[in-house]
Design a protein that fits this description.
The protein is of the alpha/beta class and 464 residues long. The protein has 4 domains: 100 residues, 3-Layer(aba) Sandwich (Rossmann fold), CATH 3.40.50; 64 residues, Helicase, Ruva Protein, domain 3, CATH 1.10.8; 111 residues, Tetrapyrrole methylase, N-terminal domain (Cobalt-precorrin-4 Transmethylase, domain 1); 122 residues, Tetrapyrrole methylase, C-terminal domain (Methyltransferase, Cobalt-precorrin-4 Transmethylase, Domain 2, 2-Layer Sandwich). It contains 17 helices and 17 strands. It has a 5-stranded parallel β-sheet, with helices on both faces. Strands 10-9-11-8-12 form a 5-stranded parallel β-sheet, with helices on both faces. Strands 13-14-17-15-16 form a 5-stranded mixed β-sheet, sandwiched between helices. A hairpin with a 2-residue loop joins strand 6 and strand 7. The protein is globular. The chain binds S-adenosyl-L-homocysteine (SAH). S-adenosyl-L-homocysteine binds next to helix 13 and strand 17.
Amino acid sequence: MRYFPFFHDLQGKTCLLVGGGTIALRKARLLTKAGARITVVAPNIGAELAKLIAATGGQCVYQPYTQAHLNDAVLVISATDIDSVNAQVAEDCNARKLPVNVVDDPSKCTIITPAIVDRSPLIIGITSGGEAPVLARMVRSRLEALLPSTYGLLGQLASRFRDAVKARFSDGEQRRRFWEHTLQGPVAEQVFAKNLDQAEQLMRQALDGADDAIDHMQGEVYLVGAGPGDPDLLTFKALRLMQQAEVVLYDRLVSPPILELVRRDAERIYVGKKRDNHAVPQQDINQLLVDLAKQGKRVLRLKGGDPFIFGRGGEEIELLAENNVSFQVVPGITAASGCAAYSGIPLTHRDHAQSVRFVTGHLKEGSCDLPFTEMASANQTLVFYMGLVALPDICQRLIAAGKDPKTPCALIERGTTPDHQVHTGDLITLPLLIKNTPVKAPTLLIIGSVVSLQSQLNWYKGSR
Ligand code: SAH
């Protein structure tokens, strides 16, 4: 470890900033955020910087730097573009054992400034010691994405309850368990949803409970949309909950690379079609979610696409609501959006379609019972989920209802994954093409004049 990280208390302390340009301005913004009082020394000081300094009780000294300016400073940052000035500042500070940072020149620094993720009171500093600053910034972006912007509120809540928790649990181990449970469980989720009153109430309830109450606290269920296949299409919230849950119930549509992102030690329960081809009955899944949550578990119900679009998400949370189990629903990118985007098919377009309809092509007693006459009217896009088996029937019935047989259609196979494939034709040719081509599930059928744009707008090649 080349550097030792410290967090410096600068409240009300004087920091000397040498230089008056844009880099100095950037540093000044950071320092004032931490409550520092800044003295800027430079023959020319930018107007914005001068304004900031005046507003934060600092001082602008319109002079070239001299050693005398170091008096009173607890920290010095040199941000000029003149090497000899930077070198002089560093040398003078070293002589006085004063911490100094020369921007973009680690060799002259006794302290370096990290990339910062600010979720005050939680503050994260990341550095590569100047060796790979872009990498450090990339790590920062990842952390920014993982920690919701409301994380700071959680820290503030913890700070408000700190003394009360200490008074309530004298045993350090109990205290630790209490915090672990509240900072990751329903309390945290209420904070992230900005229901601060609710969060405070839950905190108080938890504090009022018996010593072992924390071990018997109810769990909760996250009904999360995992998108159509490409893990990059997950939402930040989905990823966060995937890394937090202790049990995950998933089915066939959730792609393996997405499952990889679930917390390593989480119990995984497959509730899709079993080898004998029977799916776990829906009621059993609903009940399992209730039972697991009542055992105090944080349960992730991971669904392909969006849980509320042909995902039976509504049914699953009904029983949770009846049983007073707390839950949240996280939308996902539905197959229609994912497949259309990755195939270059805008679902609506001013010249082609003013509406889009998501339809299930699932057969009931061997046929699709759908309002074909309505669906045959022009200027709309039809998207059929679960429509592969019924595809010939759908095309034929649309024609019978008056739809132009030349209406372009696309069947998208395993959309957004590396195996993404698009088969195009019209209401007559696509059924014939599919008959003679092996197609792998899942597939999505898009019908409408927007499909004609595909050849021009197609961009995603998958791994082929
Ligand atoms: N809740 C899901 C849909 C579940 S129904 C969502 O919002 O996307 C299952 C159907 O979704 C499949 O039969 C198929 O028609 C469609 N589907 C899901 N993922 C798909 C994918 N990656 N490519 C093509 N179709 C997909």
